[in-house]
Design a protein that fits this description.
alpha+beta, 3-stranded antiparallel beta sheet
């Protein structure tokens, strides 16, 4: 039977190649000969082929009906409402993103996100609408703004948002060779953006480098959190359409996914799932890799992904650095330090901060993103962080680093004051030694000589000065009475003080 069909096909193909109407008939007479059944079969196929040839040449709806000739897939130059598509800059599972030029009421470059052809199902459109509403309720300098929304001529929804001229935050970190301090300052800004979303009742659920772009603003790097495509509202309904996460369906990216996300139950996910993802992002910024191998997770099945994320404990960032081998040198070069220094920078505070974010039990993570940002800022300010259980020595080290300049200045002043005090004390001691030497070596012999000469005035004056240096000297005590003379003076009134101005006198008093 198969051979008969191949034979008929060969005859039909040859007959179709004949140019005039008479040639196929003559060809069939020659080939088929007396096999009238074969000839009748091929002639029937020829007639069917002729009728099929006219099928789409005339509209089945009549001459007055014109089909829509607009393109199904938007391309460069396509105009959608007041936006002209200039370049395709991104594509996800449900939508594509184009850079477009807005022509009115103002002229500017924007990003236009359109649901992809064939993806305009109720589920996708609901998710798309939820993303647009999510962006609309937020207003933060580190979150891309939404400007407009509408539908294409093929009824596929789109929305227009701020065009972010940026690169992945990890790429920006490497390309610009930021130090760890600069990296952490960028990360704090990301935390502030996510905290803003949480305050608006929005959980991002897919924080990763490709959704955090770094751009320049006034010559300063500014991160922008984008793509709230799988965001979840905690206290509001973003759209009237139904947004339903299917059972046993992953929401998020495995390498950045929290254990509660990996369990595939969207009902039990709160803001702390974003804290976990921020911890993974910080881990990657510090080490150049994720806690769990992203390639291995991509290749694994659901069960293995769950086991890795929910049961395996990741290495601390500093430990991970030690296991990078030759790669560590490249990572350190990007951070403008040597491998040993990078390890020291990460070990301690940053280890504790990251590992607190990556706790399997979300009750052990930071309660809020704001608390995470504050701990990072404490590290930057050399203040004790809350992630660990700091010892007294640790707190003392932090106090030293935080107030190093003041402590150094105080120490210098203390040393100077002590030096001056010691110098003054030594000078005073030297003076006393000289006075002592003078009193014993010169003053006493001189006093004796003056007494022998009956020059009591000079003897007393010299003895008085010597007494300041050697008040308890036995020789001076013995000479002291000999430098004075006793006088008996009667005063009126009784008790008046008597002095000759130089030599004290003993006085007796009477009532006369």
């Amino acid at each position: 039977m198969a051979e008969d069909l191949e034979h008929i096909k060969a005859i039909l193909t040859e007959a179709l190649e004949k140019e005039t109407e008479a040639e196929p008939k003559a060809y069939l007479d020659e080939v088929c000969g007396t096999d009238t059944n074969l000839q009748a079969e091929v002639e029937s196929l020829l007639r069917s082929h002729d009728h099929v040839g006219d099928f789409l040449q005339v509209s089945p709806f009549g001459p007055d009906i014109r089909l829509d000739t607009s393109p199904l897939i938007e391309d460069i130059g396509t105009i959608i409402d007041r936006y002209k598509l200039l370049e395709k800059i991104g594509e996800g599972g449900m939508a594509g993103v184009h850079m477009a030029e807005q022509t009115k009421p103002i002229n500017r470059k924007v990003a236009l996100k359109i649901v992809k052809l064939g993806m305009d199902t109720k589920q996708v459109i609901a998710r798309f609408e939820a993303e647009r509403q999510t962006l609309a309720v937020m207003d933060h300098p580190n979150i891309a703004k939404v400007f407009d929304a509408g539908a294409t001529e093929t009824s596929r929804p789109y929305f227009v948002m701020e065009l972010v001229h940026g690169v992945l935050i990890t790429e920006y970190y490497d390309e610009n060779k930021l130090d760890t301090c600069g990296c952490l300052k960028l990360f704090v800004q990301v935390c502030h953006a996510v905290q803003h979303a949480h305050q608006k009742g929005i959980i991002h659920r897919d924080i990763k480098p490709s959704n955090v772009l770094a751009t320049m603003h006034d010559d300063k790097p500014v991160p922008k959190v984008i793509d709230f495509g799988i965001a979840k509202a905690t206290n509001q309904r973003l759209t009237e359409k139904t947004v339903f996460t299917r059972y046993a369906h992953f929401v998020g990216t495995p390498a950045y996914m929290s254990p509660e996300q990996a369990q595939m139950s969207g009902l039990d996910v709160d803001t702390r799932t974003d804290i976990y993802s921020l911890g993974v992002l910080l881990y990657e910024l510090l080490t150049g890799t994720t806690p769990f191998d992203a390639e291995k997770l991509r290749e694994a099945g659901y069960t293995e992904i769950q086991r890795i994320i929910c049961e395996m404990d990741p290495l601390k960032p500093s430990t991970k650095l030690n296991k990078l081998g030759q790669t560590l040198t490249n990572v350190a070069q990007y951070r403008q330090v040597n491998p040993e220094t990078l390890h020291k920078l990460v070990k301690g505070d940053l280890d504790w901060i990251v590992m607190k974010c990556l706790e399997k039990d979300r009750t052990q993570r930071y309660e809020t993103v704001h608390a995470l940002a504050e701990d990072v800022e404490r590290h930057l300010n050399n203040e004790p962080i809350l992630a660990g259980s700091p010892s007294l020595i640790y707190r003392a080290e932090k106090f030293w680093k935080r107030h190093q300049s003041q402590i150094t200045a105080a120490a210098v002043i203390t040393v100077l004051v002590a030096g001056l005090f010691i110098t003054a004390w030594m000078y005073h001691r030297s003076v006393n030694a000289r006075e002592l030497q003078w009193a014993k070596g010169e003053a006493l012999p001189r006093i004796i000589k003056l007494i022998e000469q009956h020059d009591y005035r000079q003897a007393f004056s010299l003895a008085k000065r010597a007494k300041e240096s050697i008040p308890e000297d036995p020789a001076l005590k013995e000479l002291w009475p000999r430098t004075c003379k006793d006088y008996s003076i009667t005063t009126t009134p009784v008790g008046a003080t008597v002095s000759n101005g130089v030599v004290p006198v003993s006085s007796s008093y009477s009532n006369t």
